[in-house]
Design goal:
This protein is 32% helix and 29% strand. With 293 residues, it is of the alpha+beta class. It has a domain of 140 residues. The strands form six sheets. The chain has a four-stranded antiparallel β-sheet, covered by helices on one side. β8 and β9 form a beta hairpin. α1 packs across α4.
């Protein structure tokens, strides 16, 4: 048992010396939801209209009318649910609404002057909060996409220009954009801040531990603070959370000699113990096979 423990210890030391990445970036988040920088709700709306989709000018005019109707209805909805918009002028929250044509097919096989077309429209709606408070039901908190979906289904005429019929709608999904210092979590539905001792690498979009000689005592940061002392201070490990974890380097000759001796010795001990453990397992397995035969 003692030999096994020694082997395990040696192997662990060897892995540490190799600096193998053993943790996930999700272990470096604060586990506290943070409001996203932006969240877009996508819906697919099917309309029936006599607008000819081949006519580019008529098609663009039709899409413009749809956008105006959607924005107008969202402003009315924000009056009922103020948390949908954090601006005094509600129209400012919905100026980025996008309306795109996805499919268009005639309802008749033969081309006629008054043909009707079934048109699939993709609508992207911005929102400032993932939930809203329903004042009509004892301040019940409801998810924003549920409110939008219900409103589109029950108020179809308010989303339809004159002479156009909204047949049905489908909720496609939510696209979340996180602010710097936070990353996506919960299946890309929410944002969470990088915890203390880490920083947000905006290139790879992950939370990473502060390297040695650096620390970070706040959450949601994009960089780490260097230990003071013009290079004479360092931290004993990665992920330091306070300046108090910075210690002075041992620049004495005795300290240098000790480091030069103990470093290689630790590697040799780790490798030796690991090899010894593997050999014992190998020979013991071989012996078992001989006894069985």
């Amino acid at each position: 048992m003692m030999e096994v423990n020694i082997a395990h210890t040696g192997l662990a030391l060897f892995l540490v010396l190799l600096r193998l990445p053993l943790t996930s970036s999700y272990e470096n988040i604060s586990n506290t939801p943070v409001p996203p920088k932006e969240q877009i709700y996508s819906f697919r709306l099917k309309y029936r209209t006599n607008v000819d989709c081949v006519d580019e000018a008529a098609k663009n005019a039709f899409l413009g009318q749809i956008r105006i109707k959607v924005i107008s209805r969202l402003i009315e909805l924000a009056k009922e649910y103020p948390s949908m918009c954090n601006k005094e002028n509600f129209s400012e929250c919905f100026q980025s609404v996008k309306v795109d044509l996805k499919a268009c097919e005639t309802t008749n096989r033969r081309k006629r002057s008054m043909d009707f077309f079934d048109v699939d429209i993709n609508v992207e709606i911005p929102a400032t909060s993932p939930t809203v408070e329903d004042s009509s039901e004892s301040s019940k908190v409801v998810r924003t996409e549920s409110i939008l979906q219900e409103d589109i289904e029950t108020q179809k005429t308010d989303y339809s220009p004159q002479g156009v019929t909204l047949l049905n709608s489908t909720y496609v999904g939510k696209n979340v954009t996180c602010a710097n210092g936070t990353i996506l979590s919960d299946d890309n539905k929410n944002c969470e801040a990088c915890k203390e001792g880490t920083y947000h690498d905006t290139t790879t979009d992950v939370c990473k531990k502060c390297p040695k000689s650096f620390y970070q005592n706040s959450t949601g940061q994009t960089s780490c603070e260097a230990c003071p002392g013009s290079g004479n201070m360092y931290t004993l490990s990665e992920g330091s959370t306070s300046k108090t974890q910075c210690v002075e380097k041992d620049t004495s000759q005795a300290g240098l000699i000790t480091g030069l001796i103990l470093g290689p010795v630790a590697i040799v001990i780790g490798l030796g113990a690991s090899v010894h453990f593997i050999r014992r397992r190998w020979f013991s397995t071989g012996a078992d096979r001989l006894l069985r035969s």
